[in-house]
Amino acid sequence: MQTQTIEQLNRQFGLDHKDNTLSFRNGRGDIPVIEICNRHASALISLQGAHVLSWIPLSEEGGTNEDGIWLSQDAVFAPGKSVRGGIPICWPWFGQHPDNKPGFPAHGFARTCMWQVRATGVMENGNTRIDFSLQPDEQTQAMWPPGVTVGYSVVVGHKLELELLSENTGNSTVSISDALHTYFRVGDISDVRLHGLDDTEYLDKPDNFKRKRQHGPVTIEGEVDRIYVDTAGECVIEDRSLERQIVIIKIGSHSTVVWNPGEAVAEKMGDLGHNGYRQMLCVESANAADNTVRLAPGKSHRLWVQYEVRAL
Length: 312
Ligand code: TA6
Prior knowledge:
The chain has 312 residues and is mainly β. The protein has one domain (6-311): Beta-galactosidase, Chain A, domain 5 (Distorted Sandwich). Helices cover 6% and strands 43% of the residues. The strands form four sheets. Strands 6, 12, 13, 15, 16, 17, 20 and 21 form an eight-stranded antiparallel sheet that branches. The structure holds 6-O-phosphono-beta-D-tagatofuranose (TA6). 6-O-phosphono-beta-D-tagatofuranose binds next to strand 20 and strand 21.
């Protein structure tokens, strides 16, 4: 797979309009990143994993909001290593490989592979769109059947839109579990409530994936690691510290994963930074567990999400 130089990428895909720029540069760990700035927002996306690292929507009044996305101060940027924070893409499996095959990475391989830019453009409303694809290589072909591909589109604006497109051009049905594993930035996790999952069932990972039922908004005291199954509706992160809410809407996702490691687990992980766990909450639009997708030959599956930051 031919990788283009920064200069070639800028020549082919760079944008330099009055109020809409997109440029490539080498980021941390010498991994190429895309810097986007338009009249609605700014964003940073790594070519490794097509990983959104930052999205800062401009508030309607023209000031800037806090970053909508959390990125660990101790995140490691290295080839083949997933970054702690941002929006990792979990594909073609969520969590451990279903057959627990040795050497098959947690959350699949999409988040640690180099993606290709397919197109960039300015939309009528002034948003910026970037289309990516993931080309198979020897490593991924050893883990995944040929002909089942994935594409990803990011639209950067006052709202952030993401779309993960799985296509089966092979000749057998495959099981895919996927997630946009988004680390949202919060002021302090103790001041946060997550609405939209009341009276739904979840698998409680720290309690051996026991099935439980959610009552009222989700609050975070200690480790929370849950797969809410058959949940396709809107969720809202109510953040009283930052006096904002983050509205999450989705199509083609039937699971919602909620994760915060809590202090003890965070300490052991080593790349969340000092007290970093207090300023993040993962709300992941996914298809996992009961909601794994069976993709027949010739079929495709779209997972689409939209995030919006609003004042409380
Ligand atoms: O999405 C929740 C989760 O599956 C947690 O169990 C935790 O493992 C988290 O993902 C982070 O996984 P990672 O492989 O990025 O360390």
